[in-house]
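@channel sequence for tomorrow's demo:
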Amino acid sequence: MTRTIHVDARSSLSLLGTVLKYLSPTLLVPTVVALLYRESPLPFLVALVVAITVGTGLERLEPEPDLEHREAFLMVSLTWLVVPLVGTIPYLVAGTGTIADPVNALFESMSGFTTTGATVMGEISVETHSHSIMLWRQLTQWLGGMGIIVLMVAILSELSVGGTQLIREESPGIQVEKLTPRITQTARALWEIYAVFTLAAVAVYYGLHLAGLAPNMTFYNAVSHALTTLPTGGFSPEGRSAEAFAPIVQWAFVPFMAAAGANFALYWYAWNGQLERLTGNAEFRWYLLSMGIVGTLLSVLLFLGVGLATIPENVAAIPAHLEHSLRHGVFQTVAIVTTTGYASMDFNTWSESAQLILLFAMFLGGSAGSAAGSIKIVRWYVAGKSIRRELFRMVHPHAVQPVRMGGTDEIIDENTVRSIFVFILLFLTLFAVSTVLLFLDAYRTPGLELTALEAISATIATLGNVGPGVGVVGPMNSYEPFSGAAKLYMTFLMWIGRLEILSVLVILTPAYWRS
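structure tokens (generated this afternoon):
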């Protein structure tokens, strides 16, 4: 006889209400911006009232919620679905542009909170939408970057007991590093590091403007881009993304994107005098190495005339051409590997070989414990070492050879190795099935002629939370031409991609609801 275990959905919904209630004050930020620019604050006030009302109502379902393992799965998954739903309200109330459509508004909001950076905006500008709406768009990415649940654990005592479990289900990567004795202190430390990097980005970007090196990097633009650099989001109030700014600004983006794609726990160790934890980390070294290899390949292709002007015959012009090639090659590599999604130029103009390299980079992802999406470097690293071990065992069948991280004595648990292979297989299977579905849906969508390469790039760009793809979903285009059904499906991909698939899919299995 099967014993049924009750999933306490009321506790999950009650804690979701707490999250909504305490997250709602963030809507005051675009409200203030609206007042400063003499725009209507109504879109944000309506969303604020809805968030507080719904949040308070859900809290009353269970005054003393009990958070166990199963409730954590449900609460995290629902949080990352309901918060973007509330995030659509400002777009719908403002009623401007393509995001006035409910499906488009949900797509844009989910893309923001999951830091994907894919957009359905027909025209990206503060003139079409407003300074406040565009800032809300950037702010959604900043809130989602380090993690909504991580933020709530940092400030809410109600979530301290099950905080480790909640962060484990939300945070990207294969494990949660407890930096301090209490998980609330760990969550607070991560958000403090995140905030410091954001403020540093604002200072550097705006400093270039004050120095006369970046005329259009105003304080508004500096804040807007800092809010989307550190969460590896890539939303920009400029229609041409990073291409709208001077070369020195594009170079300034690179170290902040690279920093955002690394494990934030390493910065905590470095700040506390353990610099060797950063320099000796195997994942960090492979993260930098992978970007170095891809960046070198792209820079060479661009220097040879792929996507840029051919090598100039005038020798004096070669240094400038080399700088252009390096800048665009390095910038796009870091933007894609970290899943930030900024564009220093329209890489739709590049050759197919260069675009294929970018597509390959979309599968890499940043480090565990970062704001980056996709599969993650650490998973590829462990998978590679596991394959190497199996080849060794074929020659030495009786050898005992555990998988280790780098040259350290840290042994990776066999359950972790197995879960990594399961995740990679599931990710690639979902990617393949979704590509076929989007490709087939395009046939019934008037005006949308989708190639196989474009379907592939649209799938990995949404499932991997990368943002831009190639072709119709290129960096200077949008996802607006897709059908409503396709956009809803890609919204689903962004949702489960941000929570690394398993955390969402597990609540859809019969085993979750019964023992």
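heads up for whoever presents: Residues 1-171 form one domain.
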